[in-house]
């Protein structure tokens, strides 16, 4: 489990991000007050910091400098400040990335894992080298089963990669269409999603009629298990 400390005084946003990242095995502890976060960092170990710049009691840039000076931990700035000076200053202070609000939580998840891979983070390496049957390589847009590459169409890859990333969680039909660059309303109206799901099952299941990995949750969507 990846552990992240988030310093964010927008509690509604913090809750959304915490719940979203949880499905990717990322545990987030949010601190509304920067002083509380700095105290906690002396006690508990985190893999990464997500830091807002507009905070009560202490400016986010000062918090960034304090973290860089006192701790060896990567920092992603998450801020609504539009002044380029703030971005430049944060990066010069030692922040590893700057994500302007508003942003899609999917982008945050990707940036987190990209930064941790760059730091040769053991938890990311362990996650990528697990004994799971299926492994997803987003950079190469490839999926393997038992180290054998699956021959997938673009639509099949999009759907299966989404389900793998949200392993053990139910993914609705609407969510699949929303997260797809290929699928569109024509697919939805024609029922082709079910056809694509069946094609995927024929390629990954030992018995497609009794799916073990890609399960249909009636009335809710699909779930991927391994």
Automatic annotation (TrEMBL):
GO terms of biological process kind: regulation of DNA-templated transcription
Keyword DNA-binding among UniProt keywords: yes
GO terms of molecular function: phosphorelay response regulator activity; transcription cis-regulatory region binding
SUPFAM superfamilies: C-terminal effector domain of the bipartite response regulators (SSF46894), CheY-like (SSF52172)
Response regulatory domain residues: 3-116
Residue range(s) of DNA binding per entry: 125-226
Positions of the OmpR/PhoB-type domain: 125-226
Key words of the record: DNA-binding, Phosphoprotein, Transcription, Transcription regulation, Two-component regulatory system
Gene3D superfamilies found in the cross-reference section: 3.40.50.2300, 6.10.250.690, Winged helix-like DNA-binding domain superfamily/Winged helix DNA-binding domain
Keyword Protein biosynthesis recorded: no
SMART domains assigned: REC, Trans_reg_C
GO cellular component, one term: protein-DNA complex
Modification type 4-aspartylphosphate: residues: 52
PANTHER family: REGULATOR OF RPOS (PTHR48111)
Name this polypeptide is given: DNA-binding response regulator
Organism (species): Aliarcobacter vitoriensis
